[in-house]
Amino acid sequence: MMPPLMPTYARADLAFDHGEGAWLVTADGRRFLDFGAGIATNSLGHAHPHLVAAIAEQAARVMHVSNLYRVEGAERLAQRLVDATFADSVFFCNSGAEANEGMVKMVRRAMAARGQPERTRMICFSGAFHGRTLAMLSATGNPKYLDGFGPAVDGFDHVPFGNLNSLRDAITPQTAGILVEPIQGEGGVRVGSPEFLRGLRAACDEWGLLLAFDEVQCGMGRTGTLFAYQQSGIGPDVLSSAKGIAGGFPMGAILAREEVARHLTPGSHGTTFGGNPLACAAANAVLDVLLAPGFLGTVAERGRQLEAGLRRLVRDMPGVFSGVRGVGLMLGLQCAVPNTEVQAACLASSLLTVAAGENVLRVVPPLVVGAGDIEEGLNRLRLAAQRLAPVGVLEGAAR
Description:
The chain is of the alpha/beta class. The protein is built from 14 helices and 17 strands. The strands form 4 sheets. A 7-stranded mixed beta sheet has the order 4-12-11-10-7-5-6, with helices on both faces. Strands 1-2-3-15 form a 4-stranded mixed beta sheet. A 4-stranded antiparallel beta sheet has the order 13-14-17-16, covered by helices on one side.
């Protein structure tokens, strides 16, 4: 019999009653350390007092009015994002997929406004994940996600991630831009090197293309800077954000330079819920924390602590783990056994993690995670590995 809630997820038989910081608690009192953060979304963890107060206060005043009217919280949030980034203007929406759709539309419209309407194609990369809409499934290019949904949406060409020669070979007179995640999350926490990202910028400048960064997962402080591009020495022309932008409240954003943003004129794009007062109150509260002096530096410090601990696990548990990837608090453990088995062993150790591509286990705690929580998480990862490691491996590690 079909359940009332569509079974589109293989959900764990686990429900949480409440949380605090990096911890979640079931109704019967079991405590779980959350190193998944709602898939890198609960940037301030659970029940953060400043975020909770901002949402409650705004909900008691007005939650939604539509974009037929000014939303002062959206104006303030846009100005803060402009002041902190490359962007000149911001469009707010509801999700990462919606932000990526709008970003591609923006690139195409800018090309048409330049008198080059034939430039509609985007170069994308193997291992990408850009969302679940039909167009973003096609931008992602993974046959598993496209299966059963008919022909792929045209306009997306794929090349190997990190390969600048293949990228240049793929540029045609119909190419409008390049769409890339600086760090691929779903694809296995694959980090684009600064040299690779600078090469993309150079290719766009040479060929008159627009550079679009998908920072839905790696943005909003997760790498130790507000956005990951800020560690590469270059900037994109347009960037998508979501996940951690409002600490778990649904929201997305497109940040763009004026030369791209000015072509989204009234009526050319829109959203019912995007940028409503409640979402913007949440996002402004998140920015209050992220932009406070020293906060992002602490994220980077906690990331170094977690990475060092993960490398010790790789050294001690070679039968379970084979490597570490990532930046800041967006880290991945390459697994020597199926990552789903490691994820299940972590769950049995009351630790929440997230599987990713290339047999990687994502370790993405809230940005407010404490040093003690990180050590506890590393202990639980070790216990999980011990459930899976051959006896001989454990004896060798002990020696």
